[in-house]
Amino acid sequence: MKIKEVKRLPEHITSIGGQALIEGILMRGPKDLAIAVRKPDGEIVLKKETLNTLGMRYKFFRFPLIRGVVGLVESMAFGIRALMYSAEFFEEGIEEEKKESFLDRVFKDKREDAEIVFTLMISLVFTILLFILLPSLITNFFKKNLETPFLLNLIEGLVRIVLFLIYVTVVSRMEDVGRVFEYHGAEHKTIHCYENGDTLTVENVKKYPILHPRCGTSFLFMVMIVSILVLSFFGWPNPLQRVLIRLVMLPVIAGISYEINRIIGKSSSKLAYYLSYPGLIIQKIATVKEPDESQIEVAIEALKAVLTGKKEEDLWK
After folding, report:
1. Could you say which DSSP state residue 200 is in?
2. Which helix (H) or strand (E) holds 149?
3. Mean pLDDT, the chain, as a whole number?
4. Are 156 and 135 in contact (CB under 8 A)?
5. Which of the four pLDDT bands, split at 50, 70 and 90, describes residue 46?
6. d(CA 239, CA 241)
7. Measured distance CA(48)–CA(52) in Å, rounded
8. Is the four-CA dihedral 38, 43, 44, 49 of positive or negative sign?
9. Maximum alpha-carbon separation in the chain
């Protein structure tokens, strides 16, 4: 599909968001979270739970900038737990008797929470090495010929973007990941259908685009752009200081990026369209694929489960 086919302002801009899983979809609504997974036998299993986020409990975590950082961490935790849940349906029968793992022995009934924490830590280390440390080291080779901190930070940002594009492109070529990206497309198409006021049926969902301007892929790209501007204020110190500054400023950059994405998502201006365009291109190249009807059915089940019956409750304010 063409990028320009993405409708900028649908009838209803929802705050509902989702994530593709292993043969499933996670949808997060204003009050509930739902996970729909298609089992190997074809049955769709639906799991639903009531949300109780920090933002729901404390007003402080709903303030601009802060809400973006908190929401990102919570979304990662929800996503990892949902991925673990969806994977369970495809591990059954592989080993009838599993040996007790280290996590089982140490954490016992808290094993799932421990797995989420460890996975988050591993993801953070991987992100630091690939998207913070490596771009900084590569850019350092240009230091002899460039003395302007802004240009060095610009090159570092461009290197980071190139590494990100290479990473998502390589990952998208994997067969299992390709299936996940098809579910990603089903999630986008279903939300488009809902936002435009159509009844949630497979036939209606099929006619909508797989790209969405408020996708997490677009958010990650915005983080990389904002980081170039923010980190330029700190010059180009020694490698250790650079890494520490980037780690300390990461929550600030994420918070600013989230607020920018909120503005872009609700705007029909040409500026908003151009700002969202790079993220849409990355979706088209790598992270979103056209789903089949069975995948759309799963997305519809997940979305229906988080609707409250009052559309004003899920508006993106």
Report:
1. -
2. helix 149-172
3. 87
4. yes
5. very high
6. 6
7. 13
8. negative
9. 62
